[in-house]
UniProtKB/TrEMBL annotation, chains A, B:
Keyword Zinc-finger: no
InterPro entries for the chain: CBS_dom, CBS_dom_sf, SLC41_membr_dom, SLC41_membr_dom_sf
Pfam families per UniProt: CBS, MgtE
Sorted UniProt keywords: CBS domain, Magnesium, Membrane, Transmembrane, Transmembrane helix, Transport
Entry protein name: Magnesium transporter
Keyword Transmembrane helix in annotation: yes
Principal subcellular localisation of the protein: membrane
Subcellular location(s) of the protein: Membrane
Annotated ranges, domain CBS: 16-76, 77-135
Origin superkingdom: Bacteria
Signal peptide positions (record): none
MF term (GO), any: monoatomic cation transmembrane transporter activity
Amino acid sequence: MTTPDFCLTDTACRHMVRAVPTARPDTPVADVIATLRGQAFDCADTVFVTDAGGRLEGIVRINDLFARHADRIVEIMEPEHEAVTDQADQEEIAQLAISLNMIAVPVVDDVGRLIGAVPPEALFRILRAEHMEDLQRLAGIGPHAAGPEAALDAPLRDRYARRLPWLVLGLLASTLVTLVMVRFEEALQANVAVAFFVPALVYIAGAIGAQAVSVSVRGLSTQDVSIAALMRGEVVIGLGIGLTLGVLSAAGVFAMFRDGMLALAVGIAVLAGGAVSAVVGFALPWAFKRLGSDPAMGSGPVCTVIQDAASLSIYFAVVTALML
Amino acid sequence: MTTPDFCLTDTACRHMVRAVPTARPDTPVADVIATLRGQAFDCADTVFVTDAGGRLEGIVRINDLFARHADRIVEIMEPEHEAVTDQADQEEIAQLAISLNMIAVPVVDDVGRLIGAVPPEALFRILRAEHMEDLQRLAGIGPHAAGPEAALDAPLRDRYARRLPWLVLGLLASTLVTLVMVRFEEALQANVAVAFFVPALVYIAGAIGAQAVSVSVRGLSTQDVSIAALMRGEVVIGLGIGLTLGVLSAAGVFAMFRDGMLALAVGIAVLAGGAVSAVVGFALPWAFKRLGSDPAMGSGPVCTVIQDAASLSIYFAVVTALML
């Protein structure tokens, strides 16, 4: 497949083919079948129905072209014919194909005239590329110019360079968590056992937050789910999970250390920190999307550091209130 | 689409359709086209070529059926015709479609006789489902019986129940990190500033590890990349990233606290902990796959806790050696 030079990456323009079968609504079905023979189509799985001006009016899946006994195309065509422009983002094209059960997505110009179609092979590549990109972005790995598949066996220096930026940003952001620790030096001095639970608290907050991020990113890529409803659910689930894990960890700390106040402080920090992490993990990807940025970026260092800092601040506040 | 009751979830059996066009190698192309008319195929995008016993011999994409001027099917068929059995895992089917550029994947029985095909619509659903499942599994969310799409608006109790198990396991595993902290109580007592960098170290180890997990999971789902080569690369990249971040964090700690030994200890812990996290994050999903388990599970609590415990152990060992 050759790609025109002027296409933007990840757009319909880059994935479309131009040689597709077309017909008018009043063309006899037998004529359409007869004219298919001898033509070198790039994608013959769907016949695109246009008016005299070339504007898309409907589509006929090749299965239906053969199967249905009908005189004219208009009788068998699917008049629901959403289409994309050649500037459409590839993710939108794949969502349209899946939601409308199309195996080739028509591409039209600004006035609705058919200019080509994104064939099923390209839709496979798009779906796979979106999958690989999400895995990378959630892990904070920058995109490779030649696409996510190329990235795997790229030169080491290139792979290093695409992974470093988020980590350096994360290192800077982690100063915030260190400052939280410094601020509670007194509590740590008074009882060094308070420090024992710091990594576990950070770890649990991160794990709860990662689940919320995943639900958020999935919700954003599934257009027919209400974000508000998901958010309400996330608050309830975050509190429920926080409560369960809080009780378990308080019991565990008490069993190991026989210190009721310390156990209570850890339990409350897990409960509140878990609920905060769930809400932050859910809300940040959504906020990034609203700001026109990539929602998966909301799972990066910013999100994790906010979760960590919130959990530790809650923990130290409770420790200070209960134990000092 | 109706699904037979006896199909295993996520297998070709569940996704295949049976009414597909077939032809013999010596059938005239014109006859094949003529007989397509009037038949209600589930998937007419590809003609499957079989011998007299029904065994698959090749495939002809519908584009080629119309385009190529040939007398008989054998002249235009693609004799490279990898197929799957009806027990094949859906991920394998999608990989085959993409790697061989097939838009419908033939399904054969144990002796190679054609029994149906997985159509492009099903391949779209499979690719999307695998994407959503990876997002969930990497975040430690259990699968929903009705598939990943159904999971988003499932009842709250169900969503809670699918998220809790990994977190409880994680809470248990986090005992290991707490024990590391307890073991180094003396170092913490001697200088409480040692505790300040614990959450940042855990955070950086986790971030480096998450990138390595993502590279590993992607490598495992792309069959034509050598895992050994990726592993060698991961060691080099892990050391390179660890070195860069180690120098940066040592400089940062020195700038903030004017304590050369503490800065050195943090720097060495970031370097070594980062390298260990990269290797563990890369190797665990691969090990899970070798053990017949889901590679994405290797990113769960086990992996993170090993990374955290390793980073902190290195840190405290260096602190003990340099400062006590």
